[in-house]
Amino acid sequence: MNVARSFNNWRKYRQTVTELGRMTDRELSDLGIGRGDIAGVARAAVAR
């Protein structure tokens, strides 16, 4: 994997974690996500 792709993946991961982290528990629940699931959801976003 090249450096640019790694950096873009890291940015996408951090952006997803940040955006989900700002949501309330109620908002996350509406999406079917628990607070403990945020890292996994972010990893899945990068894998796409």
Report on this model:
It holds the Pfam family YjiS-like. Residues 3-38 form the YjiS-like domain. InterPro entries: YjiS-like. The chain is mainly α. It has one domain. The protein contains 3 helices and no strands. The chain has helices spanning 3-22, 25-31, 38-47. Helix 1 packs antiparallel against helix 3 (38-47). The protein is elongated and about 40 Å long. It starts with a helix and ends with a helix.
What attributes characterize this protein structure?
YjiS-like; 48 residues; mainly alpha; 77% helix; elongated; 3 helices
Number of helices: 3
How far apart the termini lie comes to 15 Å
* Total domain modules: 1
In terms of DSSP E residues, the strand content is under 5%
Compute the gyration radius: what is it? 12 Å
Alpha-beta content class: mainly alpha
Main β-sheet, in a few words? none
Portion in helices = over 70%
Uncertain residue ranges: none
User: Which word captures the global form?
Assistant: elongated
What is the tally of beta strands?
0
Note the run of SSEs as H and E. HHH
Could you tell me the mean pLDDT?
96
List the helices and strands and how they pair.
Elements: H1 3-22, H2 25-31, H3 38-47
Domain YjiS-like: 3-38
Pfam families: YjiS-like
Task: Summarize, please.
The chain is built from three helices and no strands. By secondary structure, it is mainly α. Helix 1 packs antiparallel against helix 3 (38-47).
